[in-house]
Structures are given as C-alpha cells and as structure tokens.
Amino acid sequence: xxxxxxxxxxxxxxxxxxxxxxxxxxxxxxxxxxxxxxxxxxxxxxxxxxxxxxxxxxxxxxxxxxxxxxxxxxxxxxxxxxxxxxxxxxxxxxxxxxxxxxxxxxxxxxxxxxxxxxxxxxxxxxxxxxxxxxxxxxxxxxxxxxxxxxxxxxxxxxxxxxxxxxxxxxxxxxxxxxxxxxxxxxxxxxxxxxxxxxxxxxxxxxxxxxxxxxxxxxxxxxxxxxxxxxxxxxxxxxxxxxxxxxxxxxxxxxxxxxxxxxxxxxxxxxxxxxxxxxxxxxxxxxxxxxxxxxxxxxxxxxxxxxxxxxxxxxxxxxxxxxxxxxxxxxxxxxxxxxxxxxxxxxxxxx
Length: 350
Ligand code: SF4
Description:
By secondary structure, the chain is of the alpha/beta class. Helix content is 36%, strand content 17%. The chain has helices spanning 11-17, 36-52, 66-75, 101-109, 120-134, 148-154, 191-204, 218-230, 246-257, 293-305, 327-336, and strands spanning 25-30, 56-59, 77-80, 91-94, 113-116, 138-142, 161-164, 181-185, 236-240, 263-266, 282-287, 311-315, 340-343. The protein has a five-stranded parallel sheet, with helices on both faces. A four-stranded parallel sheet has the order 3-2-4-5. The chain is globular. Iron/sulfur cluster binds at residues 35-38, 96, 119, 121-122, 187-188, 217, 219-220, 247, 289.
C-alpha cells in the first residue's frame, strides 16, 4: 500500500502547539561539540590534503560524524575500512579512535606512509593495556564490543584482555588470579554506567585495580556533566551527533536518566520532527565531541523559527586543551614553513 506523505507543519503551527511564547526557552550546554582529539584528527586530514594533495586515504571514519566525513571526502579524502583497500605505497591516516598493532603491521607490509591521528587520550589507554599485560594482569576492558576504539585497545594485549560490555557481562568474567586484575575502559562511556559496572566487578574481585588515571576522557565527562545540569529542567533534549558516535548516543541516555522528558539525537536540523515540540517549554541542546558547531547553530536557527529564540548557555566547565598535530604532519609542515594554524589544534571544546 503506498504511504501517504506526511504534511510538515509550518513553524507557526509548531509554535502554536507549544506553550505560550514567554515560557519557551533553550538551555544550551557548554562544553559541547569538538574535543581536542577530534579537532586534531580533522586538522591532520585537512593538512595532509594540503601538503600532499589528494587522494589521502583514511582508515575508518576519521571521527564519527557524517558531516565531517562528507566534507573531507569533497576535499579528496578516501575513507576505507581496511589497509588492503589502499594502494601499495599510498598515504594512510589512522582515525582518532586508534588501531591495533596488527593494523599498523598490515600497513607496514603494504609500504603505506601512515599518519597516526589516534587521540592521545586513546593512546594513553593503549599504553596502560601494554603495561599491565607485561606485568601479567588480567585486563577487564569496559567498552562496547565492535567499537573501533575497543578493537584497537583490545588488540594491544588480546591474550590478557576481556571485553566487558556492561553490568550484564560481569558474571561471565573469568580471571586467572583474582588479586591481579585491572579494569580499563573506552574513553566515551557513560561515566555513571561505567562506575556501576566497576562496582559490580569489585564485588567479585575486591582487589580490582583502577586505571592509573581516568580512561573516560575529559570531553566525555564534561559533556555529560553539562547535560546532567540541564536535563532536570528540560521537556526535550536535542543531541546533535551521528548514530555511530558513542559519546553522542550516551548524551541522549544521560539526558533521559537525569530527568529530561524526551531526548532525541539528530545528525542535522532537518531531522527534527515538529511533533516533538507539543507542550514543550524548555528545550536542552548539546552535541557530541565529534560535531562541528555549525550543525548546532543550524538547530538553534530552526528552534528560533519554532518560537524558541531565547537561548541561555549553561556553562559547567571551561576547556582549553589543545593537542599538537601528529608528528608526521608536524615534520612536513615544518619543512614547508607552514605555521598557519601553529603546530597545535584549532581550538578545543564548545
Ligand atoms: S572524545 Fe576524548 S578520547 Fe575521544 S577524541 Fe575526543 S578527547 Fe580524545
């Protein structure tokens, strides 16, 4: 049976279905959007395209955002799933999520010229995995099986590591020596859920060691803290971010957990459904760590058309972290005398 096209309501009709205009407002989370690791990875691809010319190959999505990937594709980046899709000797960038030693080896086997855009905070977790495997610990890696970052960290020490997806996996864990167990984690988990999993693991293994420093990164924690502040007052929380962006998906979950009456993730403003606004006075807005600010501004413009033009930014942290570009790019830029963006990142945070 043919589907009947749904009539889209005009902004005026949406506004009429919402509470009286004086009650309508937007609470805009800060920090939101780009983190230092994403900023660095995106600039690495841009600079590689400028310095070497297209094509430049990128293994997996450089960061988990559709808009960023499409924009870089238009500039000449070619995204591949595996190294064997890259012509021998070509230039390949590893994404911000990191890769296992096996992937590095397969790139070497193909004589690829690699640029490692792995976020330094992911590299830190890799080093922890190597170190604790060397000390013969069992490593419980809390994270989502199949996520690129988890595959990369796991690949550092597969014989010592078990992936724990969440509380439901705790009872399945088997270790050799309960007194020699450490947990590590994916950088983009829900802080609360990860801690819940750790508490359950610790009930089973009371001497379970913590990572030397937090594995869930500052950007993930800060974006969750900001939405926790907004959610209790929000009738609706909109999270800008892609479906495969772990930290964006977590923001929707955290918003609902902390009291938002409804929450949706959208890649673009045009995915917003006008039916979401019925009876809505306060809209919370945030974005994942891989989302450029222009996509958030598009959402704010649409909200203003719907009568939600009163925007209050709720600032819960200041971010000033900038990571220097991958060393392979720094060397090339230095040789070219290119200091246009310095050798660090563009900016960090919201
Ligand atoms: S979310 Fe955290 S770990 Fe991931 S790229 Fe950003 S700063 Fe790095």
